[in-house]
Specification:
Layout lengths: L1 H18 L6 H39 L2 H8 L5 H9 L2 H4 L6 H10 L4 H13 L2 H11 L1 H25 L1 H15 L10 H18 L9 H8 L1 H18 L5 H17 L4 H15 L5 H32 L12 H7 L5 H6 L9 H21 L7 H10 L4 H10 L5 H11 L1 H26 L1
């Protein structure tokens, strides 16, 4: 009966939603367009350059990284200082967004990593990008830059430890189960550590430099790296080809044929390197059909992550675009930007004027609660928005110029890059709803408290 009642209620809700759908409202129509605009932008800017390399790396973790090594350094019984120390600073190397980190997180978690270190990695991966920290300090001020760096590192450790403690019984059961399952079993993966390290270095290098963002100033070290990034990507791709030949016995002729389309497209369309990158990715996928059992397992693991994650990501991107708009037109979503700006300002004056209150009106209880509200709203909204790497800085610059307080700005910086609606959907498929809601709640709560304290200090 309960099942039938739920079905009936679902049908009634769907009927009412369709019956009252505001299809003629300009903002609703604009939000529909924005959802697809964001999905198109995401497909062009992030799937090929970010997710495809991340899927290959995650698949490689599942095949070539020994279970014993994961358990030793990241497992529930690993040395906490080492596990959390490595996980908390991983973002300085990876420079990934909240979606690109997901396959990597899934890879280490499914290989036996403890919940705490895995969560620390999940948060720190997109939050502690060294270029984003530098850009924050230069564009938003050194106070926000330093606060973001310190907050992100400490957040990853504290949230990881809290998740471990909150689910400690499950962690103990998982540790015992994994230890029993893999004692003395390394799946025959006796490949030397230096070979595995070189193999992963080649793929991580491709991921990092292919997504190296353009600095705001056309000078200096960061810009020099940006200008040379595709040459660096080619070098790491060549290193990957060398690894496939020497370590996995793929014939050089096969590697040359697989790389040929990428080379041709690279020379034919030098201003459109994504075409060559796509051809190279397709060539790598083809090579996995020409190797031994290890490469077949790598392909299967990579495809498994892609099947699990991509549909949820695209659903989340469509929803994020509908509610909040795309990066080029943030005010075109169903939620007007003016409301967001009014709800994160230094005072409730703008909000009071929007609801018709005379200028100069003071509401004591609202003013007393305003710092808590603005920081919570900034954290919560940031957790739902999708920020590509580095895009959060100009967006927050615009919000600060529109009256946003320093505290909410920091709260948004600490919650936004690490979370997004697409990100939450995928985490839920890996961890389940209880752990996902707990993780999101901890991020929002800590970002809110930190924003309140920071706002009080710099006021």
């Amino acid at each position: 009966m309960n099942r039938e009642l739920k079905l009936l209620l679902g049908l009634v809700a769907a009927f009412l939603g369709l019956y009252y759908l505001p299809i003629d409202a300009p903002r609703f129509q604009g939000a529909i367009v924005e959802s697809f605009r964001l999905a198109k932008w995401y497909a062009r800017e992030h799937v090929l350059l970010c997710l495809v390399p991340a899927f290959f790396i995650a698949g490689a973790i599942g095949v070539f990284v020994r279970q014993a090594a994961v358990m030793k350094y990241f497992g529930p019984r690993a040395h906490k200082g080492l596990a959390y120390g490595v996980a908390s600073v991983s973002g300085t190397i990876l420079a990934v967004c909240s979606c690109t980190v997901l396959p990597l997180f899934g890879g280490i978690y499914m290989r036996g990593a403890g919940l705490g270190p895995a969560i620390a990695f999940l948060y720190s991966g997109p939050a502690i990008n060294i270029l984003a920290i530098v850009l924050t300090a230069r564009v938003l001020g050194w106070e926000l830059g330093v606060a973001r760096a310190v907050g992100a590192v400490s957040f990853s450790v504290v949230i990881g430890l809290l998740m471990h403690l909150l689910f400690i019984q499950e962690e103990r059961a998982k540790a015992a189960k994994v230890q029993d399952m893999y004692v003395g079993d390394d799946d025959g993966k006796d490949r030397p550590l230096w070979q595995v390290a070189l193999y992963f270095l080649s793929m991580v290098g491709v991921l990092v430099f292919a997504n190296w963002g353009k600095p705001m100033e056309a000078a200096g070290v960061w810009f020099a790296i940006y200008k040379a990034k595709w040459l660096v990507v080619v070098c790491f791709a060549a290193l990957l080809g060398l690894c496939l030949w020497r370590f996995f016995r793929v014939r050089p002729a096969y590697i040359a044929v697989a790389a040929l389309p990428a080379v041709v497209l690279g020379f034919a369309f030098p201003t459109h390197p994504v075409a060559a990158f796509a051809a190279g990715s397709a060539g790598l996928a083809a090579l996995t059909f020409l190797g031994g059992a290890e490469l077949k397992d790598w392909r299967d693991q990579t495809w498994g992550f892609a099947k699990q994650i991509l549909p949820l990501l695209f659903m989340g991107v469509l929803a994020a675009g509908f509610f909040l708009g795309s990066p080029d037109s943030r005010d075109a979503g169903i939620v007007p930007n003016v409301w967001i700006q009014a709800l994160v300002g230094d005072s409730p004056a703008t909000l009071l004027s929007m609801i018709g209150k005379p200028e100069g009106t003071h509401v004591q209880w609202l003013e007393a609660l305003w710092p808590v509200w603005t920081n919570f709203f900034a954290s919560f909204t940031g957790a739902l928005m999708y920020f590509a790497t580095l895009t959060e800085v100009p967006i927050i610059r615009g919000l600060l110029d529109s009256g946003m307080g320093q505290g909410p700005a920091l709260a948004l910086l600490l919650a936004g890059p690490a979370l997004s609606l697409p990100n939450m959907l995928v985490i839920n498929s890996i961890l389940g709803p209880r752990k996902t809601l707990t993780f999101v709640g901890l991020v929002v709560a800590m970002a809110t408290i930190t924003g309140i304290l920071f706002g009080a200090i710099v006021k």
